[in-house]
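Example 9 (inverse folding). The structure is encoded as follows.
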């Protein structure tokens, strides 16, 4: 049985068919991957900071647009763009009729919220704690991407896990929530919806998709991954989750000092050339749930089908005589 996402606020805000986002991971979530997610009915999110000139981002965006008219969201990593002195330039471009959705992270969304509202663009902000969520809602954002500590990427040592964070945030705010961290399929999606989310965002699942621009060795390392390690990249109270391979174990034991380099080696050597002896494979805990490289469309279709299957299974607990009724 399948249901409908009609009435879902994230679908209403963005115009996507399925409330499933790819994570706006630097280098990964460029036109090729984000465009494939949009074309398959999900909410593609394209990041704007790893290509350091706007012309490159704009060219990829236009290429996606030449293949699909489906909504494509844009993300601004505020601290990185600020460091590059490009916040205003990118913001002007984003808000110039290109997208229904801007996503921001790591920085104050207050001035952006005013500009987005004037431009008729919805603004969602990525948060990893209740305090960040409350501040963002006070700043006037329209929705939140709630990232639990299961996520890949850089996280604070105090970051809460998604299971508690979602419940905490949903009890205090009334904006649409997109759940991120530890979700790789429709089981995770059903769980996130039960806790108050109206959409999910998957990083590791889409990073290992057929259309992901990363080297095949990286994708295979995700498929092979049975455990993730929360390594210390030498950046203070920050941790980075990585696939538990030989190099990661050496870093974890302290045999290799990763100080100053969050990827403990030249990231692009791994990204472009598959040199997993040189750089760690960043991924979320969800890597342990992934056992094949699949095309984006299949990932989305399988996730939606399993989601409705699980919702139906739970609804059946209400039937008289079922195991759920006492
Ligand atoms: C290797 C890696 C790098 C990441 N880098 C970024 C980033 O540059 N910007 C960002 O907003 N999120 C980044 N994230 C976090 C994702 O946005 C998202 O929260 C996370 O992937 C969700 O967890 P999942 O991978 O289990 O689905 C990164 C995640 C991974 C795995």
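The amino acid assigned to each position is listed next.
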């Amino acid at each position: 049985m399948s249901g409908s996402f009609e009435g879902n606020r994230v679908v209403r805000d963005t115009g996507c068919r399925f409330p499933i986002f790819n994570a706006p991971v630097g280098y990964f979530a460029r036109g090729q991957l984000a465009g494939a997610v949009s074309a398959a009915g999900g909410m593609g999110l394209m990041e704007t900071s790893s290509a350091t000139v706007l012309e490159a981002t704009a060219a990829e965006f236009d290429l996606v647009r030449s293949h699909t008219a489906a909504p494509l969201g844009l993300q601004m990593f505020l601290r990185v763009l600020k460091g590059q002195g490009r916040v205003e330039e990118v913001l002007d471009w984003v808000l110039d009729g290109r997208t229904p959705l801007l996503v921001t992270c790591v920085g104050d969304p207050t001035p952006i919220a005013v500009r987005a509202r004037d431009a008729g663009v919805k603004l969602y902000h990525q948060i990893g704690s209740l305090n960040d969520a409350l501040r963002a809602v006070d700043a006037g954002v329209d929705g939140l991407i709630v990232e639990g500590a299961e996520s890949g990427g850089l996280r604070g040592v105090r970051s809460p896990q998604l299971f508690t964070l979602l419940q905490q945030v949903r009890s205090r705010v009334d904006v649409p929530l997109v759940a991120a961290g530890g979700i790789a399929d429709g089981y995770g999606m059903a769980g996130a919806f039960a806790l108050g989310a109206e959409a999910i965002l998957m990083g590791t699942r889409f990073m290992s998709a057929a259309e992901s621009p990363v080297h095949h060795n990286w994708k295979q390392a995700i498929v092979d991954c049975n455990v993730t390690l929360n390594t210390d990249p030498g950046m203070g109270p920050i941790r980075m989750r990585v696939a538990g391979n030989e190099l990661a174990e050496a870093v974890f034991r302290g045999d290799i000092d990763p100080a100053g380099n969050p990827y403990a080696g030249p990231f692009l050597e791994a990204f472009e050339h598959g040199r997993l002896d040189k750089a760690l494979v960043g991924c979320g805990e969800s890597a342990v749930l992934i056992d094949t490289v699949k095309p984006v469309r299949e990932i989305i279709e399988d996730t939606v089908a399993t989601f409705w299957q699980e919702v139906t299974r739970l609804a059946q607990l209400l039937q008289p005589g079922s195991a759920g009724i006492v």
